[in-house]
Amino acid sequence: MSDFYFVDTNIIIRLLTGDDPVQSHTLSDVIRKRKLRMFVPSIVLIETYWVLKSVYKYPKERIVHALVAFMNADEVVLEEPELLSRTLEMFATVNVGFIDVYLAMKANQYQLPVVTWNTKDFKRLEVEFFSPDQLE
C-alpha cells in the first residue's frame, strides 16, 4: 500500500474541525503511524473553503489561517502550491469570493482574460476581464 494518497475534502474537514472525534483520532493516528502524505487537488481545497464557510459558518480569517496552516504541513502536497498560496494571500486582503480570486489568478497564469457578469468583483482583482456584452 502506498503512503501517498489523493485526499478528499472530508479528510481535510476532519483535520481542521475535529467535528467527529472518532474519525479525527483515527486520521491523526494514520498520519502519524504511516507517515501518510496527502496530495491535494486544487478543487478539493476550494471545496474545503466552501464547506468551512457555508456549512461550518467559519469567518474568512479563520478559514484562511486554517488553510495556510494545512497547506504548509509536511504531509501535504498541493496540485498548484504557488497559485494556491498567492490566491489565499490575495483573498485575505480583498472583499471578493475565494473562487473569483482563484479564477483571476488562474487566468493570469494562462495569460487569458476572464469573461464574467461579475465586473464589480473583478475590478478589485489584478486581471483583465470583460462582460459578455463588451464582446458583442
Blueprint (SSEs and pairs):
Elements: E1 4-6, H1 9-17, H2 21-34, E2 37-40, H3 42-54, H4 60-71, E3 76-78, H5 81-91, H6 98-110, E4 114-115, H7 119-122, E5 129-130
Parallel strand pairs: 1-2, 2-3, 4-5
- Please tally the helical runs, counting DSSP H or I stretches of 4 or more residues: 7
Mean pLDDT: 95
Kindly report the spatial arrangement of strands forming the biggest sheet. 1-2-3
Uncertain runs are: none
Assign the CATH topology of the largest domain.
Answer: Rossmann fold
Share of helix among residues? 55-70%
CATH architecture of the largest domain, please?
A: 3-Layer(aba) Sandwich
Computed structural class: mainly alpha
Compute the number of strand runs. 5
Main beta-sheet annotation: 3 strands, parallel
Distance between the termini: 55 Å
> Class of the largest domain, according to the CATH hierarchy?
Alpha Beta
Compute the CA-based radius of gyration: 17 Å
How would you describe this protein?
The protein has 136 residues and is mainly alpha-helical. It folds into two domains: 1-79, 5'-nuclease (Rossmann fold); 94-136, no CATH class. 56% of the residues lie in helices and 10% in strands. It has seven helices and five strands. The strands form two sheets. The chain has a three-stranded parallel beta sheet with strand order 1-2-3. A two-stranded parallel ribbon has the order 4-5. Helix 3 runs antiparallel to helix 4 and helix 4 runs antiparallel to helix 5. The longest helix is centred in the first third of the chain and has 14 residues, at 21-34. The protein starts with a strand and ends in a 6-residue tail after the last strand. The relative contact order is 0.11.
